[in-house]
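Job type: complex structure
Entries:
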Amino acid sequence: MNPEDDLAAKAEKIRKLGRSPWVFPVNSGGCNGCDIEIVDTITPYFDAERFGVKVASSAKHADILLVTGPVTRQSLKTLMNAYEATPEPKLVVAIGNCACGGGICHDSFTVMGGVDAVIQPDAYVPGCPPRPEALIYGLLLALGKVEQKVKRREFKEEGIDETRAPV
Amino acid sequence: MSSILKLLKLGIKRGRVTLRYPAEKTPTPEGLRGRPVLDFDACIGCGACAKTCPPNALTVEEKENVWTLRLFYGRCIMCGLCEEVCPVDAYRFSEEFELASATRRDLEVELRLLRVKCKGCGKYFTTKRALDNTVAEYSELADGYAEEFKDMIYLCPDCRRMDWSEALADAYREARYES
């Protein structure tokens, strides 16, 4: 299944829900930098509430989980509890480098190495920490309201045999 | 009631403070390090960036005749060290920060270069582009001064070491014989 189609379908579900998408930030062992940026996005200057985004006080009230941190072993259970407590339909957005791919502590024995090791996120928001604008952009991308800007880039020098089996 | 009126008065006096972000472009400070963009044509494949990258966002894989550099934006902390160490300035930090993506695949950059064989032992040891770069720089630097070492460029580090130590041993033997 193409993840982008899945994302659009989920966003459609949230739209059908007929109310604003509420978010719940889950810190899974991060340094709090990304959490401070999440708080920044609800300040009057960036004002994420223009899009109906409101920070819920419990995962049971939320539609979107904002996961920060590299998912440490200690926080894994808490993260899964929050994920299971969130009612369907739900979206998971990985905020920051730690959540996207483990970040600076990706090779530590105490971390799972990113959210996608345990839950498949619907959107990745890289940055260390991401700017509040980047965070709003990521949320809107998860809701299917903006176009994705980054694309995979590949380059191959002439003469490299594609069919050759790697040794 | 009066407090609400007071707030209203304050709000009217203050005006709009909210940034209309997706509709309006956000002001970026000068010298902001956003997404590092790798220039595929400039990269010579020396691997210095992968060695210095603190979160291993840049990784190098060497498989027979192919040298692969992978950049994963989901781990890049935009520290700028790759730009600093790059000998040919292949990295440029753009002001792009909207990197959000629905898939992990879209956050990756892959560059594959050809590797060349050592003239001594026949093992692959460096990329073709890096060798060409070394040859070009060496001809500028040496300027006819060390012509006999020119062939050493085409040797891998192990062969070069052996070559060098053999030459030294020969010279030592000769000197001893003469005395």
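Summary: The first strand of chain B starts at residue 36 and ends at 38. Chain B touches chain A through 44 residues (CB under 8 Å).
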